[in-house]
Amino acid sequence: MAFLTLSALIMSALGLGDRTYLLDQDNYVQYFRDTNIYWFTNLWDGSLTGTIFVIRMVTEELGWRAWVLALNTLGCSPEGGVRITVLALNALMIYALSKTRWPLISLVLWAVIPDALATVGLFQIRQGFAFAIAMYFAFARKQPVRGAALASLVHTTFAYPAIFLIIARLCVKRSQLLNLLSVSAAATTMAVLSSLLFNIFGGRRLVEYDQQENYTLNYLIALVIFTLIPYLIVRTRDERTEDPVSASVTRQISTMYAGILVFLIVSFFVYPFGMARIGYYSTLMIPFLLPSIRVKNKLVLWLITGIVLVIGYDVFKKYSSGLYSYFL
């Protein structure tokens, strides 16, 4: 009952609240105004080969444009299309959260974590829509790789998590430790290679994304602390009582999360632009994974408490800056 009540309150606020003053609202309204069938024909005409077209499906975010065109075809106004998108992504998210081990705790975390409901669930809706699709397929349909692939068509930043997830899937029959090491090695390699490529082609933009501007040592410490989450999930699993399919999904998602964290930690030193692109995944995954940890002893409880305190500090800081004003 509490889960349904909180879900209803969230959806009501999203459906009835004033969006005119929100960041990116005008940009998304313009997306709906500008997207038409000619955008798709231009995408095809501008691709010299089928391979280039497939690549551009991701880089040009074909899935997002298809969603926008579908709503436009149904006669939605640009403003109405934006609100429907917000409601749809949060409905998918709530349904996915209902499939976690502790749905109410997961939903509360989604509601309070700054990068979650108050950001990607409210005004950065392309990122939110992609993430919602990925989590819906992972936790509701038990098809994490398919969800990641579809999410990459909605927002390109999910291509990184998708790669980590594919590696986790390929290594699913190996030991969890080897799985984590494989994904961590891939994440480190991707961060270093991305840094080299960005140094070559990014030019002056690399200076603009100096990690000292947006990411501090406190953020780096938080990332390191969050690496406890996939580790604790592995250490506290009880294979005798777990559903094999659900356990496999949780294992793959937690391994993907480990890859994201390693990528961000390495990027802090070598590739700050990478942090700017996918940094929000460091906290978005927490509502799905933190409740999966089983409290088997006092040490685990203390470690979970430390993670919650880090989240609480971020919540307090963002509350003081007015991030949650839409809901209050």
UniProtKB/TrEMBL annotation:
Keyword Transmembrane helix attached = yes
Protein name, UniProt field = EpsG family protein
- Give TM segment ranges: 104-125, 145-168, 180-203, 215-234, 255-279, 299-316
Task: Keywords in alphabetical order, please.
Answer: Membrane, Transmembrane, Transmembrane helix
Q: Does the keyword Plastid apply?
A: no
Q: Which organism is it from?
A: Caballeronia glathei
